Amino acid sequence: MRTLDDIREEYEFLEGDERYRLLIELGRELDEMPDALKTDATLVRGCSASVWVYPTEDGGTLHFLADSNAAITKGIVSLVISAVQDQKAADIAAMDVPAALEPFDLKNQLSSNRTQGIPNMIALVQEHATRIASA
User: Fold this and answer.
1) pLDDT tens track of the chain, all 135 residues?
2) Domain 4-133 CATH (choose: 3.60.15.10, 3.40.190.10, 3.90.1010.10, 3.80.10.10)
3) Domains of the chain by residue range
4) pTM for this prediction
5) Residues belonging to the active site
6) What are the Fe-S metabolism associated domain coordinates in residue numbering (predicted)?
């Protein structure tokens, strides 16, 4: 998975439809999420499309699996995951993820229908991280 900095560097040079294509490409690069993990417990509420996020832990480091049934939304969740992927649970819990995503200006780049679930994606990721960090 690409780092958020690498994605931002490429994103800044693109415009309009090219940015959509990049998001779709990011979604395709996500690790495969088994259907068995796509449950009500891993479903992100408030998204216009179905989005699932599942954390795995290895020595306090979290690796997230995610998927969506919509290509652009899958790219958006990939972007969110890129901000936190393979970091310590405590660091993710304390991170200002919206600030990390601010350079992408998603609210002005995408329709409100596509961005409405981003805060819920972030909240679910950070809830998982907080739970794991305090365990």
Assistant:
1) 789 999 999 999 998 889 989 999 999 999 999 999 999 999 999 888 999 999 999 888 999 999 999 999 999 999 999 999 999 999 999 999 999 999 998 887 777 777 788 999 999 999 999 999 998
2) 3.90.1010.10
3) 4-133
4) 0.91
5) 47
6) 15-127
